[in-house]
Write a structure and sequence with these properties.
The chain is α/β, with parallel strands linked by helices and 255 residues long. It is built from 8 helices and 15 strands. 31% of the residues lie in helices and 25% in strands. A hairpin with a 2-residue loop joins β12 and β13. The longest helix has 19 residues.
Length: 255
């Protein structure tokens, strides 16, 4: 997904964005020109187990409820190359090797695009949110069940970076510093910020970004933890909050 492709997206035909997460599947029609939902979003529970067929059926139900025609962009918490799911760190392992574009197209009868969830949120933030008009290296990190990442060089996405799996403290970074870990271990905001400090310092040493954007649902509480983090890199909360994944998904929909 490139900035050139996004700029070419049509606004005359409704576009629907669907953000597939571990607990919920959220979707809404989107104005890709303005980066805004045109109707209130619909949220359905992610089926358990979240197998490809079960998720595809739930997505079809959600689209029926939107009652809006048009193409669809979807996100998955996985590496997606040429429409094929390559990893399953936080989703059912049955997804690995699945052609998600074909799966959702068959289930919905619509033209679909499928991208990594953090990449989608990052694209939305770069076009409409905290990263707009920023050049150089920008990294967006999404904090949730795991840690997602989206890396941009002069506004161009480097897809599927998966920086939440960088080695840290004897395991993957997300196993030590994800927002779900803060909740699980009942960490204070300050103690969690100490963990994030070490993770962000690792990103600094590897990538020397010009800007770090902190996203995910917890970004709306950034005032509780970002003041405890000191970096040589500018770090800011995401601006689009829970809409970023849906808007970014819509930007990946076929025009």
């Amino acid at each position: 997904m490139t900035t050139e492709r996004m700029a070419g997206s049509s606004t005359t035909t409704p576009v629907i964005g669907v953000d597939i997460g571990g607990t919920g599947i959220k979707g809404a029609p989107v104005s890709v020109e303005h980066g805004a939902l045109t109707k209130e979003r619909i949220r359905l529970l992610t089926p358990s187990p979240a197998t490809p067929d079960a998720v595809a059926k739930t997505v079809a139900q959600l689209l029926d409820q939107t009652d809006v025609p048009g193409s669809v962009g979807l996100t998955l918490p996985a590496v997606v190359r040429s429409g094929v799911v390559e990893t399953a760190a936080n989703i059912d392992p049955a997804w690995i090797g699945t052609n998600a574009v074909e799966l959702f197209a068959n289930a919905t009868g619509r033209a679909v695009g499928v991208v990594n969830d953090a990449d989608a949120a990052g694209v939305a933030e770069m076009r409409f949110g905290a990263g707009r008009d920023r050049q150089g290296v920008v990294i967006m990190v999404t904090l949730g069940t795991g840690i997602g990442s989206a890396v941009f060089a002069d506004g161009v996405l480097v897809p599927n970076t998966e920086l939440g799996h960088l080695p840290l403290k004897g395991g993957g970074a997300e196993q030590w510093a994800a927002e779900s870990v803060r909740e699980r271990d009942d960490l204070s905001w300050k103690r969690w910020a100490h963990r994030l400090q070490q993770y962000f310092e690792l990103l600094e040493r590897l990538y020397w970004p010009d800007l770090l954007i902190v996203g995910g649902g917890v970004s709306k509480k950034a005032d509780k933890f970002l003041p405890h983090i000191e970096l040589s890199t500018e770090i800011v909360p995401a601006e689009m909050l829970n809409d970023a994944g849906i808007v970014g998904a819509a930007l990946s929909a076929p025009s």
